[in-house]
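Sample intake sheet
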Amino acid sequence: MTHPFSPLTPAQRWFEDFQIGERFPLPSRTMTEAIFLAFQAASGNNHPIHYDVEYCRHHGHPYLLAHGYQVAIQTEAELGPITILVNNAGIAWAATIDTWEPTGFARLRAVNVDGTIHTIRAVAPGMRDRKYGRIINISSVASFGTTGFAGNHFYASTKTEVNILTRRFALELGEHGITVNAVAPGLIRSDMTQGNKSDAEWTEMRDTFARVAMMGRVGEPEEIARAITFLAAPDAGFITAQVLAVDGGRKDYIGHG
C-alpha cells in the first residue's frame, strides 16, 4: 500500500489555475492553496487533481457522477491509490424567503452537496478494497446557526446536509478502516471572502466578525489546512464522524428563550 501521506489528495475543484509543482508565497490566497502546501509539507510529494464541479453540473448529474469516477481512475493510474479525499468545493448564494428561486438553489446544492456525494462515491470502492481511507469534507460554522451574513440561510442548509452526510458516511465506511470527518471554518481571509471588496469594505467585515470571535480575529487559510492535515494523518485513525469547528470561538449563534 502507498503511504497515506503520498501524492493522493484530489480536490473537487481548484478555484484558480493551479499547476502541479507550482509554489505560492505564504500567506496563501485561498484555502485550496493552503491545503496543498500543508500536504506538501507533510509528505513532500503531493499533486492536485482538477475536478471542476461547476463544469460538470452544466452537463447534468449523470455527467458529474461519471466525471468523478473518471478522475478517481485517472488519479490511481497516474499517481497510485487514493487514500485521502478533501472535498473543498463550495459556493455561496445569498437569498431570503422572498428572493429564493429554484435555479440558484439548485446550483448551490449541486456544488455543495451533490459534489461531495459523488466524489466520495468515486473513491470509496478503492478505499474499501484497501481497508484504509481518510475523507475530509469542508462544512461551515453557518451550519451550526451562526448569524453570519444576511441571507445565508440556504447556504447554511447545504452545509448542514454536509454535516449529516459526514456522520452517515462515517457510519457506513468505518468498518472498512475509512474515517469521514468535516472541518467547519469560520470567516477566513482569502480571495473568496475578500472578493471584489475595497480595503475599507474588507476591513469593516473583518472587524465585525473579529468582534464575535473569542480570539478577537478572523482566520487564515493555513489554519484550516492544518486541521485538515491532522484529520488526514494516519494517527487520526480513531477519529471519525466529527465536525471540527475552526472559527476562533464564534459567539454569534441564533438563540431562543
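Comment: Residues 1-28, 50-64 have pLDDT under 50 and may be disordered. Residues 102-130 form the longest helix (29 residues).
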